[in-house]
Amino acid sequence: MNPHRGKILIADDDPIIRIILKKLFGKTGFEVITAQNGKEAVDLISNEIRAVILDLEMPVMDGIECLQFIRKNVRDISPIMLTASEDFTSAVEAMRYGAFDYITKPFNPKQLIALVDKAIETDAQAKRLRRVEAELAKSRDQEIETASKIQQALLMGIPPKNFKGMEIANWTIPSQKVDGDFYDFITIDSQCLDVVVGDVMGKGIASALMGAALKSYFLRAIHELELSCAHDDMLPEPDAIVGRVQSAMIHQMEELETFVTLCYARFDLSRNQMRFVDCGHMRTIQYLKESQTCILLQGINMPIGFPETEPFTQFIAPFSKGDFFFFYSDGLTEAMDSHGHLFGEERLVKSVKACSGLSPNEIIKGVWADIVKFSGTETFRDDFTCVVVKIDPHDIPMLQPDVESRMTFSSDLKELSGIRQFIRNFCEPIPEELLCEARISMIELAVTEVVTNIIRHAYSGRSDAIVQVTASLFPDMFLIEFVDKGKSFNPEDVPHPNFDGSRDGGFGIYIVSQIMDDVVYSRDKDNTNYTKLKIFLKPSL
Hints:
It is built from 13 helices and 20 strands. With 541 residues, it is of the alpha+beta class. It has 3 domains: 7-128, 3-Layer(aba) Sandwich (Rossmann fold); 156-391, PPM-type phosphatase domain (Phosphatase 2c, domain 1), CATH 3.60.40.10; 403-536, Heat Shock Protein 90 (2-Layer Sandwich), CATH 3.30.565. α3 links the parallel β3 (49-55) and β4 (80-84).
């Protein structure tokens, strides 16, 4: 006997079959181990065994049960089944459970030896293939890991350190390690910082490369526009920058059949405002510290890569000390729970508001914790990307008005004409090119609606209370502030007006919101109500 070919296990309850097979395979160079039932075979099985021959009908544990155990626990062995000539049904069942083949009794010795040799070679090939696949998978993982690091460098910008007046935090978790989400921070000057947050349609390396190309084009567009308007001493505005990028990349994106959603935002500390261009991206959440409310900022532009989208429209979002902005990708709102429910925008807003007293980094961590708790997992099908920009309540230099005037009126509707005259007198010195007559008339209408609401709702019609009105003129903004001690007011509780006449109410707030560039309602700890109307005197350049 020359057992140099390894071990072979034979399990059969017939001792004659065991003896015959042991002699047969011993002569071909195998060390033969025998078992008289499936249970003994299970106890003898190990990775050293190269082939197994199982009888289908055995006591204690039959061939099918033994086969199932082997296929589950010893991956590199596909047993050969021995069956009576009339027992083909069980043999076919064994093939479904992973047997290599079956042979009927009485068997041809040469045929059985050839079948065992074929099984050993097939299992060896499968083992080699799995090893190669494992090595390739490891190599791919290493390449993707390297690409992910490159992606972080190319796609995820680094916020400027110590930008006075703002605190910034950013975080991204790619769903496939390499993806199309990107963001960047571009310092324009000591008072202006541009933040761009985008998402390329699709996933993988192609999307990541497109995102990197877009980042490069934004920097190039700013440089080119700065050169073209250097003689005017003006900064290129966000809408012009986005338009330049769209013109430069539209043909490439059409050829690749892709598009990009993004929000390009400029934080201007000199004007206390964010000017932004939204191109189909997720609505930015702005938290207003003064009123402790969240508003959703949304544009009207199509994504980058859509034809005929120029010119791009930009909007203005005024901010105050302690306000912050939450930019994010759809990976946050589209996170699912076990029932397939989406986390959604409403839950996200509540999560952001609940974390409003924290630092930007802690806000992101708090939102992340809420989404993980909701979904029950830390692995999502899409990217988790967000950027938080907080207006530092200590560092930001808030502007003082050039002119300010204040008057106090009683809460009587008869005072409305005097309040309107107070506003008109304040507006008279403002040049007409900044505030025309038609605009002044609209402001008077808005002021009338605000004061009427205070008298009728905050003071419930009382005429013996006080309303204070302050008008302030800044270099590029006209601010009107109303102060009262009446009942609290939440504009979110007021239903949107029905224009079909089916329901009264809601028209005053609607009119004010349509006339003013910005309206802020708030109430402090002393139960004092504040209503601020903002009118921007200089249009965006």
